[in-house]
From TrEMBL:
<protein>
    <submittedName>
        <fullName>NAD-dependent epimerase/dehydratase family protein</fullName>
    </submittedName>
</protein>
<dbReference type="Pfam" id="PF01370">
    <property type="entry name" value="Epimerase"/>
</dbReference>
<dbReference type="InterPro" id="IPR050425">
    <property type="entry name" value="NAD(P)_dehydrat-like"/>
</dbReference>
<keyword id="KW-0560">Oxidoreductase</keyword>
<dbReference type="InterPro" id="IPR036291">
    <property type="entry name" value="NAD(P)-bd_dom_sf"/>
</dbReference>
<dbReference type="InterPro" id="IPR001509">
    <property type="entry name" value="Epimerase_deHydtase"/>
</dbReference>
<feature type="domain" description="NAD-dependent epimerase/dehydratase">
    <location>
        <begin position="4"/>
        <end position="247"/>
    </location>
</feature>
């Protein structure tokens, strides 16, 4: 039994990481921002009840120096998932995105450097740390993205989330190279879907699923391709990345490249009750470009992403981490079932 510290444990991905580690019999030190927030910790407490003595919750803040020290005391491994994710316009990019992502990573790893028992760290990065746009990925040989690629085009003003994830990952590699105690492994997932362990609806993929199921895209969708992956597979990859001493470097995590239209048709096939809510066509690129400001998209984003279908080389994650990715139908079908069960489609 190892002791694994998981940051962002109440989040969409972090919750599944905790569940995976507990199921394997390990102790988990799980960090949350507010221990008194029952709405955000109830599902973790339920996991703890199913695994008596294995789960311990700690309050920690990404921007408060030393706040992760207690959660890391005695830990063998650290899985750092805590980071903001939103596609909404931000009033203060530094405060709301760059600070928590980049400075937060530095803060967590400073605590890691003060933990003498720590052997390995797994960091949740993103596919957007590998590319600034689908146009860029499409320009690679065979239109294929892999772990050798880095996002060099995003900026804090242009794509703050992509810039923050790239900057946070680079900072982690720099911090790792400056010490010799612990090893770093980085996971770069695509668009994460699949059932949530909580009833929270603030995850971006949950919001998108709700839009599909409520008919927001019934008139049609852009020709936009997502590198889709199941949240449970991403969680398993994180736990394997710290437990397997042979794991190293970066791992691109994508089940397959999936256009938005196929998300709709897949939901129609596995959940026929929503068939009339699903899109049946892709809208012309010129129409999306014209309508972009009205639908919350930037025209330069449309130019650089709509109509480009990149591929993803995931050989490292399959062979190195032993992943066998769930099908898109399984991911989306289970996600719809969870949203219905938790009353999140009213």
């Amino acid at each position: 039994m190892a002791t694994i510290t998981v940051t962002g444990a109440a989040g969409y991905l972090g919750s599944w990481v905790v569940a995976e580690a507990l199921a394997l019999g390990h102790r988990v030190h799980a960090t949350v921002r507010d221990l008194a927030d029952e709405a955000k910790t109830a599902h973790l407490r339920q996991l703890g009840a199913r695994h008596p003595g294995q789960l311990h919750l700690f309050a920690a803040d990404l921007l408060r120096d030393g706040s992760f020290d207690a959660a890391l005391a005695g830990a063998d491994y650290l899985i750092h998932t805590a980071s903001p994710y939103t596609r909404a316009a931000l009033r203060d990019v530094q405060r709301d995105m760059l600070g928590p992502a980049v400075d937060g990573t530095r803060n967590v790893l400073a605590s890691a450097n003060r933990c003498p028992t720590l052997r390995r760290v797994a960091l949740t990065s993103s596919i957007v740390a590998m590319m600034s746009s689908l146009r860029e990925a499409y320009a690679h040989p065979a239109h294929t993205l892999d772990e050798s690629h880095w996002n060099t085009g995003s900026t804090a003003d242009d794509e703050p989330y992509s810039y923050a994830k790239t900057s946070a990952e680079r900072a982690a590699w720099d911090i790792c190279s400056a010490q010799a105690q612990w090893q770093l492994v980085v996971l770069n997932p695509g668009a994460i879907f699949g059932p949530s362990l909580s009833r929270r609806s603030d995850a971006e993929s949950v919001k998108m699923m709700q839009q599909f199921l409520k008919g927001a895209f019934a008139a049609g969708v852009p020709a936009l391709h997502l590198g889709v992956v199941d949240v449970r597979d991403v969680a398993a990859a994180h736990v394997r990345a710290v437990l397997d001493p042979a794991a190293q470097g970066r791992y691109l995590l994508v089940a397959e490249s999936c256009p938005l239209l196929r998300i709709g048709t897949t939901i129609s096939d596995c959940c026929p009750a929503y068939r009339n809510k699903m899109p049946r066509r892709e809208l012309p690129r010129w129409l999306i470009w014209l309508a972009a400001p009205a639908i919350g998209m930037r025209r330069d984003y449309v130019r650089d992403n709509v109509g480009f279908a990149a591929l993803y080389n995931t050989a490292r994650s399959r062979s190195g981490l032993g992943l066998s990715y769930r099908s898109i139908a399984s991911t989306l079908g289970d996600h719809v079932e969870q949203l219905e069960r938790d009353g999140l489609l009213a």
